[in-house]
Amino acid sequence: MRKFAFLLLLTLPTLFSTAQKAPGLTQPGAANLEQYLPAIKGKRIGLFANQTSMVGNEHLVDLLMRSGVKVSVIFGPEHGFRGTADAGEKVGNYVDEKTGITVVSLYGPKRGPSKEDLENIDLLLFDIQDVGVRFYTFISSLEAYMEAAFLNGKPLIVLDRPNPNIHCVDGPVLDTAFRSFIGMQPVPVVYGMTIGEYAQMLVGEKWLKPAAIKAYDQMKGKGIAPIKIIPCKNYSRASVYDLPIKPSPNLPNLASIYWYPSTCFFEGTVLSEGRGTIAPFQIFGHPSLPASMYAFTPKAMPGANAPKLKDQLCYGWNVSGDASSIRATLNNQLNLSYLIEAYKLFPEKEKFFILPKSGDARASFFNKLAGNSTLMDQIKAGTSEAAIRESWAPALKSFKKIRAKYLIYK
What is the pLDDT of residues 170-219, one digit of tens each? Predict the structure, then answer.
């Protein structure tokens, strides 16, 4: 391996200038160039990436192109390839101005690459920073990408990245009757796995479409490795990883990322979850809550062009602060206390949860976030946080047994 690395440095003298960091620092799988660069040289590459696909201070696309790799097409997830679109905003196909490469959007009606998208592709790469939360849609995008790869006989390399919420496995396990793009598989809200580990679980548990699993087996039968995970360097489950670039417009820092699994539930209610403020998911409230509480006004801003309750004076909570203190306060668990208290304080309780036009609570966005209808019923019934947490325990125990089979990092 040392000889190979030396030869690679001779042929590509500047390749590692931005890819390497000081020894001992955690680095994403994309920095392990010696483990995947030889496999993709001379191939036509399809790359699923966004603004977080960085190696040091250089974007992976630029690094690959500079090293002579042909990136034929870029696939972009929610928020787009450059990460500037609002949550849920539909982004169409376009040509990236900087690179001249066609970007195919995989967020909207089209979730995975089509057969036509992959006709002139030899191999697929996936490199996106995840935050380890079930309703953060990148694991759903990964699933659709994997299925497209196998169904079209294209080998896939997943460049793993650290999960800032890897320390936490908690929340209700999704009931597949509530499956949606913000929750595809029977995993808890926070599942404590990197995206590479999660990919292994999708295959190992045969959670992909049966046709995709069959195609995966056929590729293996032909001696083709359907998927390869390139692990992170210097990473363990005890690592605290502060993302060098925000993973989406409304997760600007580690404090928001830590609170996100708990306070994103407010997206399924009439309360503001803090979009349009300086601290999304750390500030939340509503005009109808007591005026003695923390006051804030959501404003239009980049990444939140039309935030909920825009320009309305709201009252609620500000739980922002130092990330390490927040992590210690959360103590490896979701915090439902603010959600429960908000419901108690809200004057028109029948309007607290946002319902679809049909009025069917089961189809509500809140229940999609929760992955069941039980949590909404528990909050309405005044169930304590401790009792709610106790109701999660059996399914969490079963999930942890499944999860243990696919962990890469100690």
Answer: 999 999 999 999 999 999 999 999 999 999 999 999 999 999 999 999 99
Q: CATH assignment of 12-243?
A: 3.40.50.12170
In whole angstroms, give the CA distance from residue 105 to residue 122.
19
In DSSP terms, which residues pair with 284 in a beta bridge? 317
pTM over 0.85: yes
Checking 117-122 for CB contacts under 8 A at 24+ apart, the result is 117/46, 117/73, 117/75, 117/148, 118/46, 118/148, 118/152, 118/154, 120/44, 120/72, 121/44, 121/45, 121/46, 121/72, 121/73, 121/154, 122/43, 122/44, 122/45, 122/154
What are the domain boundaries of the chain?
Answer: 12-243, 254-384
Measuring CA to CA, which residue among 241, 269, 260, 261 is closest to residue 170? Answer: 261
b/e 204-224 (16+ beta carbons within 10 angstroms → b): eeebbeeebbebbeebeeeee
CATH class of the domain whose range is 254-384: alpha beta
The SS3 of residue 126 is strand
**Beta partners for residue 230, in sequence order:** 159
Interior angle at CA 339, CA 353 and CA 107, nearest 5: 60
